[in-house]
Amino acid sequence: MPDILPVNETGEGFTIPYFDQWMAMPVIIRVAVVFIGISTIFILYIQFRIWFTRYKGYLLNKRVEKVVPVIDALIAEEIFMKSETGQKGAPHINFDAFRIPLFANHKNKQILIDRLINYRRSFSGSIGNHFKQLYLELGLDKLSTKKMNRRSWNMKVRGIRELTGMDVSISDVNILPLTNSKRHELRTEARNAYIKLSKNEPFKFFDISSEPLLDWDQIELFKTITTTENIAIPNFARWVTYSNNKSIISFCLKLIVHYNQQDAAPAVIKLLETKDHILRAEAINCLGKLKYEPAEAQLRHIYSNQPLNCQLEILKAIGRMSTGESAQFLRQEFMYSTDFDIRKNAAMSFVRNASPEYIDELMEASNDENKLILKHSMNPLIKY
Amino acid sequence: MHSILQWIAAFYESTVFVYGSVLLVIYALLALLSYMAIRVFLQKETYTDYSDLLSSDLAPGISVLAPAYNEGLSIIMNVQSLLTLNYPVFEIILVNDGSTDNSMEQLIKEFELVRVDFAYNPKIRTKPINNIYRSTNTAFSKLTVIDKVNGKSKADAVNAGINVASFDYFVCTDVDCILDKDALLKLIKPVMDEQSKRVIATGATLRIANSCVIDKGVIIQMKPPRNLIARFQEMEYVRAFILGKMGWSFINCVPNVSGGLGLFDKEIAIKAGGYDPLSFGEDMELMVRMCRYACDNQIKYAIRYIPTTLCWTEGPANIKVLKAQRTRWARGLAQLMYAHFKMCFNPRYGRMGMITFPYNFFFELLAPLIELSGILYYIFLIVTGGVNYQYAILLLLFVYSYSIMITTIAILWDQIAFRHYKSWKEVLFLCSTALFEFVLYHPLVVIFSLRGYYYFLTGKKHSWGNMQRQGFAQVKQ
């Protein structure tokens, strides 16, 4: 191993301190030494990053603390006070008051957008419209549209959110393709926006949607549909009958229940023939919640061929219908089923269907366990 | 003879070298994976409005199971805190596991409970139920209290709760844990957000509550514990949850959902047989059996973790309690490995069999044993004059600096995501604890783990894992 390293210009050899010792070390030890150095530098760097991350957060908070009161003061002065003074017709709002150097900075502009969306969400009617007007007058919609046209899905979602938040319409050509995007977050946002903003057929994407509606998407869509004003609610039986997307069918069943669409019941009954037992159970559940009595006989009829989850749903559905016609059937299931859950659900529905005398009679005829189930079902303190 | 000994020594050294190197690489990978998982989570979180779920008719119901044994000092406050959780459809099932204090009397009086004829269906076998209570006051209509014969384990109490649970999902927690008000909303989200797999369990980050400011069961301000032992645990929890479990979650290899807080699919939990009352690590044991059941029945499953802190627990503040806790955990791990060893390197069990189980076996179960053997070998080398002290110190420094780096990365990820502590100084205070972990805390954990293995081998008796509580600091009124 050489202990003299390159010769310098004067021709004298020189040595690097500890080089010999370094080279004499086993490779593993040398690697370890290098890693000690790397780790130490990394630890210091991480400490700096922690400090920097916190500092950035602190600066952002400071900025928000500085800008938000200015926005609030302007809004109070220009929108709230002018609306309150009861000027005849629409109050004259001086939008130029918002064209101040503070909002030239794009970060401050973003805070302004967020704040306006927040206000728009909290106020409806004419005051709410003033916020929309302000947003449009200041050209903030152009910024949001720009975001929507960016390549990053993240920015697209942001843009859609802002436009939807301000009820600014987006053309179907731009939004509809996004409702089938592979990116889940973008797809969800686009669907919500489409329902909220589409002037023509807000539920059109139900026809073209091939991607599944996840449970969480359903929660969001359900809220959008049920809280958006002036939305034309279609008969959801259309998709129950024709859609190939099971999650759309499932979602439509929930909407049918929410809007109590009795005329959709025949389509739901047709769904009882589906091979998918989870979807079938949902259809039964829907019929029960609609209290669609004409289906009761058919439910009893198909009962014996169903898997457990569908049988339980049939028992619950009959309980909800409360016609009294199935009391004998429920009694039978309660007395002779070996499955605890079937007996419990049959008892709960029986209590809703049968007369007090009939219940007493069943109590008499029951064994100890069944007596307990009946008492459980009759106890008003027990909900489930 | 001499050459055989030399060969054994060389073999041992090479094995330990490979073992250590693989472990270091795994930690580096986990750091990377956890970063990616946290980024994905934060992106999704930006566009999530939990109030949609809060006001929805479509929210799935959740049963919250809280087992309690002699928690009379705080039980009322804890139940009140659970009743204020934000979620549209839930029930609280408190299981009084034969407490010998006045817990039951306090509950009956405070919540106006009466005995009801409840059709109890023991899908999982437990010790007998004495009575089931419901409240006559509609304000407490979400509460059900089970009074049962002591089953000498948390597992038996939770199983009784599962038998009574009405909904498809249950959250298991300890009655003395403090939950975030939105814990249920956030735990159910990964279940509802999964496209192709069935999420059988969801977990979230747990933190130590010892020095946090608490008011009426709610965390007002998070602070790193002042007590050194508790602070070591806080650091350990950040590393285990933020870096470890988030990393494993990214590749769907979560080994365990903590007993302090976890949401489970009730159907799979029951079919897997519920919690094992004889296990010391009942949470991990159930998780393994649920995965096993899913694999055996061709159910595509996922276990998810979220980095948000949703639960605070009181960590042991002295060595005696820490010893009892860690001994129990180690014993549970040994039990689990022994009971399910067939899963190890068994491709039938997918990632659980090929990644999670081997990792747990080699790097969780064997680690204390390998460390012990290393120390003994070192002593032998010192005695025989076979140690090159310069190299030994360098290697030690390497491991030391690497471990500090990993811990600091975990704290950074936590800060990037949440910035829980009020000031940077508090973060630095926690980071500085990593400097002493290697010499003060880690040896203790190794010793307690070995003690646990010893108890496993000798079969010491089983009891409820209650620890002596010191109580939380309450905000001054």
Keywords:
heterodimer, A: about 375 residues, mainly alpha, Serine Threonine Protein Phosphatase 5, Tetratricopeptide repeat, two-stranded antiparallel sheet, extended, disordered N terminus, B: ten-stranded mixed β-sheet, 12 strands, globular, transmembrane helix (chain A), transmembrane (chain A), HEAT repeat domain-containing protein (chain A)
Order of helices and strands of chain B: HHEHEHEEEHEEHEEEHEHHEHHHH
Largest sheet of chain A: 2 strands, antiparallel
- Taking the alpha carbons of the first and last residues of chain A, their distance comes to 83 Å
Secondary structure tally: strands of chain A: 2
Largest sheet of chain B: 10 strands, mixed
Radius of gyration over C-alpha positions of chain B, nearest whole angstrom? 23 Å
**Spans of chain B with pLDDT under 50 lasting ≥5 residues?**
none
Counting H and I runs of at least 4 residues, what is the number of helices of chain A? 20
Q: How far apart are the first and last residues' alpha carbons of chain B, in Å?
A: 76 Å
Q: Structural class, from helix and strand content of chain A?
A: mainly alpha
- Number of individual domains of chain B: 1
Model description:
The complex is a heterodimer of chains A (384) and B (477). Chain A is an all-alpha fold. Chain A has a domain at 126-232: Serine Threonine Protein Phosphatase 5, Tetratricopeptide repeat. Helix content of chain A is 67%, strand content 1%. Chain A has helices at 19-24, 27-84, 106-122, 125-137, 140-148, 153-165, 172-175, 184-197, 205-208, 215-227, 237-242, 246-258, 265-270, 277-290, 296-303, 308-321, 327-336, 340-353, 356-365, 368-378; strands at residues 5-7, 13-14. Chain A has a two-stranded antiparallel ribbon. In chain A, helix 14 (277-290) runs parallel beside helix 16 (308-321). Residues 1-5 of chain A have low confidence and may be disordered. Chain B has one domain (1-47, 177-477). Chain B has helices at residues 2-46, 50-54, 75-83, 103-110, 154-164, 183-192, 228-250, 266-271, 282-296, 319-339, 350-383, 389-417, 424-458; strands spanning 62-68, 90-97, 113-115, 129-135, 143-148, 169-173, 178-179, 198-208, 213-215, 218-221, 261-265, 301-313. In chain B, helix 7 (228-250) crosses helix 13 and helix 12 crosses helix 13 (424-458). The N and C termini of chain B lie far apart (76 Å). The model of chain B has no long low-confidence stretch (mean pLDDT 92). The chains are: A mainly alpha (384), B alpha/beta (477). At the A-B interface, helix 2, helix 6, helix 8, helix 10 and helix 18 of A face helix 1, helix 6, helix 12 and helix 13 of B.
